Amino acid sequence: MKNMKKIVFGLLVVFFCAGFAAEAAEPLRFRFAGQQRLDHLATQMQYDVAKEINERTEGRVEITVYPADQLGNYSLVMEELIRGTIDMSVTSFATEFDPRFGVLYINGFVLDYDQAREIFNPGAWLPNKLNELGLNLGVRVIGSFLEGFIGLGSTKPLVEPLNPKVDKGVMTRVPNMEVFISGAQAMGFRTITIPWSDVYQALQTGVADAVNGMAAPTGYTMLRDVLKHWYVLNYSMEVHAFMVSERSWQQLTPGDQEIFLDVARKFTLESIRVAEEEDNKYLELMEQDGIEVHRFTAGELRPIKEAVVATWDSLAGSMGQDFIDEFKKELGN
Predict the structure, then answer these.
(1) 76: how many CB neighbours lie within 10 A of its CB?
(2) How much of the chain, in percent, has pLDDT values that exceed 70?
(3) I need a surface site. Which of 26, 117, 302, 311 has the fewest CB within 10 A?
(4) Domain of 183?
(5) CA–CA distances in Å: residue 172 to residues 42, 126, 147, 156
(6) Number of domains making up the chain
(7) What is the pLDDT of residues 88-98, one digit of tens each?
């Protein structure tokens, strides 16, 4: 009987100590870096992610959002993710760590939002490949934020915009990146690289007649006073990666890792839904302000895609032929 009492007493002590330890356990505190301003949709969704993860982990993970490059620009943030000194981010890939991250900026592999939902859905080939590249560095890629399709704004009408064999009759400013320069030239544009801060003046003075490398919301808010035409060419997307440091990831329980993956999937698909709404909203605002908007179906854009796909092999020097061959096989059709 005495032995039984000792056993019961011992069990009570164990249960009490376990409960006390659980109550005393400190939550994981993660820093969540962002590069967009405070009122940007990406930042707003980061706060939603932080709240949902905290609630679904029952307080085991507390996340603080640092928007607008507060923790450094995207290159520094990625370096800190690799080190484990920043836990999470929604930022651009820093291609200096692996040029193959530039696959996101290759023109022509997605032409409409239905395709975007398939291609960027976590578990599809592209997200899996980006995660594979990230894990080689110590960074887990669990989702994406899609801002919208990149179009082309112009001060004058294009010549046969869907015929890549015809010169478009405009000097077009493009971002100073090989994927944009080769893609634009393949579509029939003469190109010039101008810093973004000088684009408005360049369009005003005629140094450039057209500009690409931006989605409709940016085109409208920054350039609506000078643009006369907007072409919905959908040849590229503005995309940021949802990344978690592998060192931070390993601190999570398997159950909490599943919560992160589920929230990231919702974040990705919601960003695509919102991007489509925003595109339509700003295209309508353009029309209301007198900018002529030229819309095309995915079928009509096919000749442009085929012309751009033909340039992908030129990227093998920086990304590797095997990688480009795989990319073409998966997304070149």
Answers:
(1) 15
(2) 93
(3) 26
(4) 2-96+104-331
(5) 28, 29, 22, 11
(6) 1
(7) 999 999 999 99
